[in-house]
Amino acid sequence: MKKFTKTILGAAAFSLLAGSAMAADAKACFIYVGPIGDFGWSYQHHQGLLAVEEAYGDKVETAYLESVPEGADAERAIERFARSGCNIIFTTSFGYMDPTNKVAAKFPDVKFEHATGYKRESENVATYSSKFYQGRYIQGQIAAKMSEKGVAGYIASFPIPEVVRGINSFMLGAQSINPDFKVKVVWANTWFDPGKEADAAKSLIDQGVDILTQHTDSTAPMQVAEERGIKAFGQASDMIEFGKKTQLTAIIDDWAPYYVERVGAVLDGTWESHDVWHGLAEGNVAMAEYSNMPDDVAAMAKETEEKIKSGELEPFTGPIKKQDGSDWLAEGEKADNGTMLGMNFYVEGVDDKLPQ
Amino acid sequence: MTPEIATAIFLTIATAATPLLIAALGELVVERSGVLNLGVEGMMVMGAVTGFGAAQITGSAYLGIVAAIICGALFSLLFGILTLSLATNQVATGLSLTLLGLGASGMIGENFIGLPGVKLKAIEIPLLSDIPVIGKVLFSQDLIFYISILLTIAIWYFVFRTRAGLTLRSVGDNHTSAHALGINVLKVRYLAVMFGGACAGLAGAHLSLVYTPQWTENMTAGRGWIALALVVFASWRPLRIVAGAYLFGAVTIAQFHAQAQGVAIPSQLLSSLPYIATIIVLVLISTNKRMTMKNTPASLGKPFVPDR
């Protein structure tokens, strides 16, 4: 039996409907930034929760809260979970970083896992992320090959390191094929608003881009691209159903192996704080089928994917200059993890001013 | 700017403005009757999921629209029974209607996630749609767009030029006097609430059948609240709602274009422009006491119990 918790967060209030629960060995709880039905970021995390249920059955009780706004509400939600007997809490958005650490300090016996962050202020906080940027590099290469105008549109959410890294990696991939490639970046300032994302997509297409990529969570931009007859990349989930003639590939987040492993560690008492950053090689990031492109482009993409998996290719390898033309990485030099995780600058060639 | 780009931009603006316009028009009628229904967001999202589902099952976007309208009206009836017959607090009831709608639509729509929707086809009006720019923007749109324009005119005419509209306003301004004159206050309010619900449902259908033909939870993303703000923004006058909705849409789209053009203004500031504009107008309106007094329904939000 699982405890099923579903929440709707409105202005400030939230209500909890809880079913009955039988005694389980551990309780794993998840906090999502969007609705599980976004078919993007939160949807994929929820698939991870389902995998945990599948793997441990009655031994693990699960609970989740969806659409939890980043900020003060998040702290309340995390604390509520900590009080309700959760043994491990996964907080799955960058903006939960400070609330997670704050609550973790108050509940030393509860394990906290924060996605995409870099702060581990107490022993019971671990961080984990996936190297989505590896997929963005491949997308950049495909975009440079497929775009006739040499301009791609990039719908971004918030100027946090993860998103900036993605833009830079996309740009580096594109430049490796076409040094003059341009990217137009539009900040939607939301993770999830299908209408707004569609508006951003339309505006970019009207501005003349012929390839669209997104770092927001809904399938709306893919649909707009399909309607307008240009190509696009899916985000977080395979969005091919929304763009049969449009999707080139998609970066798929697969959190299931990690969640199953970490809940397992809680069950057998081996859980320890760590910071992991898995990518294509470990299967946490996967590419959807390369479609709607000529065979040679697909072959190139596959080759790049293999090279990244084997470690032969690392997108952030010098020589790379920063946007202002100053040197960042020398020939052959690789970016260190600290700079990667806190990335707050663009590489040369990105045609946008990074919001601060 | 070439005519093609201008047309595309206008079309995008119209698409962004239409759901706001329809939902706000419905709420205007509700508030003119003296009832404040804060459940627009919930009714809208229920309309969106019903519209999507009905279109998915029947294969017809038009049946989706009909279903969304009916669903919105029935959902608002729940609000009506609570606030009108049982005289509950309108603000609290409206808020719970929103929460209920968001939750219930998520449950109803669970199986619709990840399905591409049925898109409502555009209807080209012969001859008129051939006019450059204007023809494309005004005369080759989808049915809901045409409804939104006709609805604006119809509601303006109804509220200010008909006897029934006068009755509606009198109930909203002073329900005790209206009652004394023999007007069935609760009946008028029930009809107004249901009309508002039907409009919100239709606005929701626009989201899931035209704007972004898909179902995702919370897909209204706060548009119901913007519609509510628009009613005040327009000081309860239908034609001003059109201006407000299109202004809001235009600023939203303009900021995306400014960003894509690389205008060196922080994107956070650009994103907040539509909301800043709304606040400025609200401030301007509220400083003009006379106009506020003249237009605000005096009984707004006050419960009426006939036998008291």
UniProtKB/TrEMBL annotation, chain A:
<keyword id="KW-0732">Signal</keyword>
<dbReference type="GO" id="GO:0003677">
    <property type="term" value="F:DNA binding"/>
</dbReference>
<dbReference type="InterPro" id="IPR052910">
    <property type="entry name" value="ABC-Purine-Binding"/>
</dbReference>
<dbReference type="GO" id="GO:0005886">
    <property type="term" value="C:plasma membrane"/>
</dbReference>
<dbReference type="InterPro" id="IPR003760">
    <property type="entry name" value="PnrA-like"/>
</dbReference>
<keyword id="KW-0238">DNA-binding</keyword>
<protein>
    <submittedName>
        <fullName>DNA-binding protein</fullName>
    </submittedName>
</protein>
<feature type="signal peptide">
    <location>
        <begin position="1"/>
        <end position="23"/>
    </location>
</feature>
<dbReference type="Pfam" id="PF02608">
    <property type="entry name" value="Bmp"/>
</dbReference>
<feature type="domain" description="ABC transporter substrate-binding protein PnrA-like">
    <location>
        <begin position="27"/>
        <end position="312"/>
    </location>
</feature>
TrEMBL record, chain B:
<feature type="transmembrane region" description="Helical">
    <location>
        <begin position="6"/>
        <end position="28"/>
    </location>
</feature>
<feature type="transmembrane region" description="Helical">
    <location>
        <begin position="91"/>
        <end position="109"/>
    </location>
</feature>
<keyword id="KW-0812">Transmembrane</keyword>
<feature type="transmembrane region" description="Helical">
    <location>
        <begin position="143"/>
        <end position="160"/>
    </location>
</feature>
<keyword id="KW-0472">Membrane</keyword>
<feature type="transmembrane region" description="Helical">
    <location>
        <begin position="215"/>
        <end position="234"/>
    </location>
</feature>
<feature type="transmembrane region" description="Helical">
    <location>
        <begin position="35"/>
        <end position="55"/>
    </location>
</feature>
<feature type="transmembrane region" description="Helical">
    <location>
        <begin position="264"/>
        <end position="285"/>
    </location>
</feature>
<keyword id="KW-1133">Transmembrane helix</keyword>
<feature type="transmembrane region" description="Helical">
    <location>
        <begin position="241"/>
        <end position="258"/>
    </location>
</feature>
<keyword id="KW-1003">Cell membrane</keyword>
<dbReference type="InterPro" id="IPR001851">
    <property type="entry name" value="ABC_transp_permease"/>
</dbReference>
<protein>
    <submittedName>
        <fullName>ABC transporter permease</fullName>
    </submittedName>
</protein>
<feature type="transmembrane region" description="Helical">
    <location>
        <begin position="61"/>
        <end position="84"/>
    </location>
</feature>
<dbReference type="Pfam" id="PF02653">
    <property type="entry name" value="BPD_transp_2"/>
</dbReference>
<dbReference type="GO" id="GO:0022857">
    <property type="term" value="F:transmembrane transporter activity"/>
</dbReference>
<feature type="transmembrane region" description="Helical">
    <location>
        <begin position="190"/>
        <end position="209"/>
    </location>
</feature>
<dbReference type="GO" id="GO:0005886">
    <property type="term" value="C:plasma membrane"/>
</dbReference>
